[in-house]
Specification:
Layout: H1 4-18, E1 25-28, H2 35-40, E2 45-51, E3 54-59, E4 63-68, E5 74-79, E6 90-95, E7 99-104, E8 108-113, H3 114-117, H4 121-125, H5 137-144, H6 154-157, H7 169-179, H8 192-211, H9 219-227, H10 232-235, E9 255-259, E10 262-266
Antiparallel strand pairs: 1-6, 2-3, 3-4, 4-8, 5-7, 6-7, 9-10
Length: 275
């Protein structure tokens, strides 16, 4: 599933193609949305933003298209009416004079009036979006130590979109590693130093992934490994998807566990479980 950085990057591409331009044609694959085609044709796209893994395309007549890629959704921005060769099903097509923004495979698409967006069930429950809102480490520390979240295991908490919007499976493992937190711990089990590191890592790694094509590893180390001929999957992360390989810090073998029904990776030494 694409995580916050990938959706934010897709939103940037869609906005670059469509913003300030008249929609000449628009098509929804779902019959219950067809009535909105005539409402949105002829309008301008004024902004494209995100809330975690959801994208919001804002139109000049105060309507918004809400979409969530879920597991398989994928956006393409191409020259007008130049459809990609793919087995995916086209769900939404927005055409302007020179470009088309095409959403494939996603089933969660809605059209809302602007005033309805904040009350949408996903938007209303979502936590802060680090890439689309001003979120500080102090803001996150307050969430970590709140009665609502402090007693929950990090492995479940970091996947909860009501905690921090946009964090998914690879960011979960990487944030916990950067903070030196064992995946079995809860915020209340952590030292103040670990909580501060987790707050900074949540912000820093989200932005690093967004700005550097999914890389969460130290950027200088990633560049060295790349120069040595390593493939992207080999230099991209600190621990995620590196089961059995040496920790980049201490050399201990990285371990994979299943937590909250998803794979999670950690270093048993750097993330020791101290009782």
């Amino acid at each position: 599933m694409p995580e916050g950085p990938e959706i934010r990057k897709a939103a940037d591409q869609v906005e670059k193609a469509l913003k300030g331009r008249e929609v000449l044609d628009l098509h929804f694959a779902f019959p219950h949305l067809e009535e909105y085609e005539s409402i949105l044709k002829g309008q301008e796209v004024i902004h494209v933003d995100t809330k975690g893994k959801a994208m919001l395309i804002r139109f000049s007549n105060d309507y918004t298209i809400y979409s969530h890629n879920q597991l398989y959704g994928k956006w393409y921005v191409r020259n007008a009416y130049n459809y990609p060769k793919t087995n995916r099903q086209l769900r939404l097509a927005i055409h302007i004079e020179k470009k088309s923004a095409l959403l494939y495979s996603a089933s969660n698409i809605e059209v809302l009036r602007n005033y309805e967006v904040e009350a949408h069930p996903f938007i209303a429950k979502a936590g802060p979006d680090i890439l689309s809102e001003h979120v500080t480490a102090h803001d996150l520390l307050l969430r970590f130590t709140s009665d609502r979240f402090r007693r929950r295991r990090w492995t479940a908490l970091l996947l909860d979109q009501g905690f921090i919007a946009g964090i998914g499976n690879y960011l979960r493992s990487e944030i916990l590693f950067a903070a030196g937190i064992h995946p079995g711990h809860r915020p209340m089990d952590c030292t103040s130093s670990q909580l501060e590191k987790a707050a900074r890592a949540s912000i820093d790694l989200m932005w690093r992934s967004y700005q550097h094509k999914g890389i969460t590893n130290d950027l200088s180390l990633a560049e060295r490994l790349k120069a040595q001929g390593a493939k992207r999957y080999q230099y991209r992360h600190w621990v995620f998807n590196r089961e059995g390989q040496a920790c980049r810090i201490c050399g201990t073998e990285v371990v994979k566990i299943i937590a909250a029904s998803r794979r999670c990776y950690y270093c048993p030494y750097c993330q020791r479980k101290e009782e």
